[in-house]
Amino acid sequence: MIFGSAIIALCMLVGYTIGEWLGVLFGIGTNVGGVGFSMVCLLLLTNWMRKRRKLHAGMEKGIQFWKGMYIPVVVAMSASQDVVSAISQGSVAILAGIAAVCTVFILMFFLSKRGLLE
User: Fold this and answer.
1) Which of 4, 34, 111, 118 sits between 20 and 30 A of 105, alpha carbons compared?
2) Average pLDDT, the chain
3) Who wins on pLDDT, 69 or 74?
4) Is the CB of residue 7 less than 8 Å from the CB of residue 63?
5) Do 96 and 38 belong to one domain?
6) CA pair distance 111, 115, nearest whole angstrom
């Protein structure tokens, strides 16, 4: 279970770093999609480990535990963001949200076609 938690922690650090870099790149000054990038990283890493038979039962148990915690964490994080203020500032926030969702759909389509996701 400890190794599964360590894998999730590594993915969270990678995703958080990518989100911070995107925030700086776009001049927003906040994390942009760090949790989402973390989950994509976790999916790719666990599938890679499963195919190479390096994902042991203890690791899987730790990962399953934290996957169950994912939704409450996302709800808590989104509650801390000022969504109403962002939307009232104009259509840029809405367009950015739509673009992010479309990008994830396209990314998942290509990853599943290449066999990287099961």
Assistant:
1) 4
2) 77
3) 69
4) yes
5) no
6) 6
Distance CA 112, CA 45 (A): 14
pTM, two decimals, is 0.57
Range of the domain at 97: 82-118
Could you identify the residue written with the tokens 């994912």? 70
Select the more confidently predicted residue: 54 or 82: 54
Question: How many domains, the chain?
Answer: 2
Place of tokens 């666990």: 46
Write the DSSP assignment of the chain as a string of letters: -HHHHHHHHHHHHHHHHHHHHHHHHTT--S--SHHHHHHHHHHHHHHHHHHTT---HHHHHHHHHHHHHHHHHHHHHHHTS-HHHHHHT-THHHHHHHHHHHHHHHHHHHHHHTTS--
Query: Residue 80 pLDDT > 70, yes or no?
Result: no
Q: Among the residues of 52-91, which ranges form H helices? A: 57-79, 83-88
Q: Are residues 19 and 70 in the same domain?
A: yes
Condensed to tens digits (0 to 9), the pLDDT of residues 95-116 reads 777 888 888 889 888 888 887 6
